[in-house]
Amino acid sequence: MTESNAGADAKQNAPKQTAPKQADRPQNAARPANKADDSTVLSDSTVLSDTTRLSDTTVLSDATQLSSKTHVTPKKAESEHKAGKPALPQRPKPATKKVAIPSKSKAQSQPKQAPATTAAPETAAKPSRQPKNQPRPKSVSHATANAAVLPTPDADVAHFDQVFNTIVSNISQVIIGKETTIRQCVAALVAGGHVLLEDNPGTGKTQLARGLANSIETPFKRIQFTPDLLPSDVVGVTFYDQKSGEFTFRQGPIFAATVLADEINRASPKTQSALLEVMEEQKVTVDGVTYPVPQPFIVIATQNPIEQLGTYKLPEAQLDRFLIKTSLGDPGHEASLKILHEANVRDRADTVEAVASADDVLRLREIAQTVRADEAIEEYVVRLVEATRHNDQVMVGASMRGALALIRLARVWAAADGRGYVVPDDVKDLATVVLAHRIILTAEATFAGQTAKSVIESILDDVVAPTIGA
Length: 470
Fold this sequence. Notes:
Blueprint (H helix, E strand, L loop, with lengths): L2 H16 L56 H9 L20 H6 L5 H11 L16 H8 L5 H17 L7 H13 L3 E4 L6 H10 L1 E2 L2 E5 L7 H4 E6 L4 E6 L6 E5 L6 H4 L3 H6 L1 E4 L2 E4 L5 E6 L12 H4 L4 E3 L6 H9 L14 E2 H12 L5 H15 L4 E3 L3 H17 L7 H12 L4 E2 L1 H5 L4 H11 L8
Parallel strand pairs: 1-9, 1-10, 2-11, 3-6, 6-9
Antiparallel strand pairs: 4-5, 7-8, 12-13
Helix pairs in contact: 6-7, 6-14, 7-16, 14-16, 15-16, 16-17, 17-19
Protein name: AAA domain-containing protein
Organism: Bifidobacterium saimiriisciurei
InterPro entries: ATPase_AAA-3, CbbQ/NirQ/NorQ/GpvN, ChlI/MoxR_AAA_lid, P-loop_NTPase
């Protein structure tokens, strides 16, 4: 075949093969001959010869349907093509979509099909697109991610939750409508700390302390602090026994597992200092001899904030030894009605019985020590304590004892919630009752009406808490 004949065949075949039917083209629209519109459909029998070229302006729309069968050039035609005109360089195929040319032999053997029939399988094969405004489904939810990061509580934590809530429910029969304060006091008992209850007269401070003592099968003693109380009246005294001819130590009321220090601010600072050693080291030294106190040991002290006549301010060293300082406040409307309905009960603390033993409390203390506190939680506690030291309204910030108290109490608080790990909300719930009584405000802040509680709350707002699972 000569070069002129090949060019003539190409001109004769190209319009016949590529030109769309007149019926498919809209009559009212004039388009270039080399540009296919959206309705152009190439059937399976359509064959593009090897010499057919598409110009740069030729556009195939998304509706153009081509068969997925690859065109196979016959060996005879391929040899003739090699002997004749050399092949022209082809344009690189688009990276987004590959177009396959149907085989001539395959196309001739199959009957001619309607354009709609050919487009149906191709349309079904295309994946459906989601609307742009529809959010993509997340592979892993935040709750699933957090559950995978945070440890799972074991059976010991479940036992802790059960025993802890049993004690709280028992004390709630004595003090009605104050579950949060009761939980704080029980948590302090489990953490091995002490409680300072400061509230107005008649709010139930003594009843709460006695209700807590009666709920645990441990020795209980009450010390009524008065201005003439001596240190020996608290810790004990060594006296000479004439019958035996020896000196004998008589233990004071401090040798009990639960000690109620009623109106502690009415005693002199000398007597108050007798509690420093036992509250910190859980032991008493008299005449050079050290005696341990029963476990679990807790001091529950009460004081009246509105009556200052005949009282002594607690020294800062003793205030720092109290794990928490909390208050009860007035009962709500429903709680007040329930108390009035039971007005015949003179002593509500005597109506409850022990629901846990000393060994149970010690076991809860061991479980609380296994609760996990992440390094981010520990750093959060340290930043809170450091913020109290650098605050312009605070003259003396919280000590390191306060940071230890906060992290220990947070572990107990988490286990009481049925969790084996501490979350930032545990620290936030306890920061005020743990740190407020450990700071001293400046005179300017006091004159401006600021309180230690409000300063701690502002620090909680300023210090950024860690994010779970981050």
